[in-house]
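Work Package 3 (structural annotation) set out to generate three-dimensional models for the target panel prioritized at the project kickoff. During this period the team completed the workflow that converts sequence records into discrete structure tokens, so that structures can be stored uniformly alongside our sequence database. As a representative example, we reproduce one entry of 198 residues exactly as it appears in the project archive.
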Amino acid sequence: MRVATLYAMDRESKSEYQLELAVTLIATQNYDLAQLELIKVMLRNPSIERYRRALFLQAVTYIYQFRWDAAREVLRDYTTDERLDALFDAALNMPQKSVKIASTLSKILPGAGHVYAGDWRGGLNAIGLNSAFGFLTIDAVLDGHYTDAALWVGIVFLRYYRGSTFRAEKAVEQFNLQASRQAAEAFLQRLQEIVDNP
């Protein structure tokens, strides 16, 4: 595609090849490179049809990157759909869970960060494992086996305790990513409806 773009004789052919290259780059999740190709097309002052297609593809790349403000700005030149505006408002006001809160909750009570992120199974697992290792450590101290207690704390308990905090942070990131993907899917579905029924 890049070679075809280089050897294209006229501006419209070059723009068409770059639009096709942008579609390929979007499909392979190379959104920044796709943006570069689309900017090149738009700087060339293409026909209205190609310009609108470039706007549409630019909005799609922003949507896949969860850049809602940028996508909204680009789509203002493409369409004035009210349902699309409502989707943007919903995406911009979408509640995101905090990684710091999940981390803090897990440090206070292992597993609480998982529950905050909606991962009940992981939360119960973390609470169970950390409670068991905590019990074994305390039991070893009470029995006077200080070396065993130190090994339980130093090797096993701290590993699971820190791992619980790390996994809670990842659970929140996954929750936020899933919410953003659902919003992106709603945008793309509405854009498909707009394209199918102009």
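The first helix runs from residue 2 to 7.
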